[in-house]
């Protein structure tokens, strides 16, 4: 089930990111899909696996095409699964919450998720099929969110819309 949701939400993020620069609705769809993806199907699912199938994480590092990753995973992560997977769960949850918060916090979350996806590239060629398109989508979303925040049209900016008194661009229709 969680693999299907990763696919559905991942495709939603990718497709929405293609329109995010021109559509506030597309930015919001991508934001919610990405937040749910990492908060529920990342952090929560990994927490369930950590509780119910601790040993399932050992095999993840064995899939890497790089010997140093396989060796480091086996010698450092596997003996300390609770610590490292706990940090992974916390990171996924924090990134998901930041993305759902929108605005500047979303931008921080997007940068964290970019770093996460770059890290995935070291764990097997098959992850490139997921991580590269997601890196492109995250980059498009970050660019769209920054542009929207600069023009005061974000709608998700935690500081509220930019107003002329604050030195920003007036909102459409003379509002602000």
From TrEMBL:
Membrane-spanning ranges: 30-52, 73-100, 120-142
Keyword check for Transmembrane: yes
Keywords tagged on the record: Membrane, Transmembrane, Transmembrane helix
Region of interest called Disordered, as start-end residue ranges on this chain: 153-176
Protein's UniProt name: DoxX-like protein
């Amino acid at each position: 089930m969680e693999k299907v949701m990763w696919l559905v939400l991942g495709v939603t993020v990718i497709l929405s990111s293609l329109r995010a620069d021109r559509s506030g609705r597309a930015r919001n769809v991508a934001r919610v899909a990405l937040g749910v993806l990492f908060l529920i199907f990342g952090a929560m699912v990994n927490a369930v696996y950590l509780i119910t199938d601790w040993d399932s994480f050992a095999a993840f590092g064995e899939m890497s095409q790089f010997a140093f990753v396989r060796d480091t995973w086996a010698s450092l992560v596997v003996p300390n699964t609770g610590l490292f997977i706990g940090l992974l769960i916390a990171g996924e949850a924090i990134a998901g919450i930041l993305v759902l918060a929108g605005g500047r916090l979303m931008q921080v979350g997007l940068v964290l998720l970019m770093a996460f996806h770059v890290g995935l590239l070291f764990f097997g060629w098959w992850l490139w099929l997921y991580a590269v398109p997601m890196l492109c989508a995250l980059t498009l979303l970050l660019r769209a969110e920054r542009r929207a925040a600069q023009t005061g049209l974000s709608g998700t900016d935690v500081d509220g819309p930019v107003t002329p008194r604050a030195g920003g661009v007036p909102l459409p229709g003379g509002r602000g």
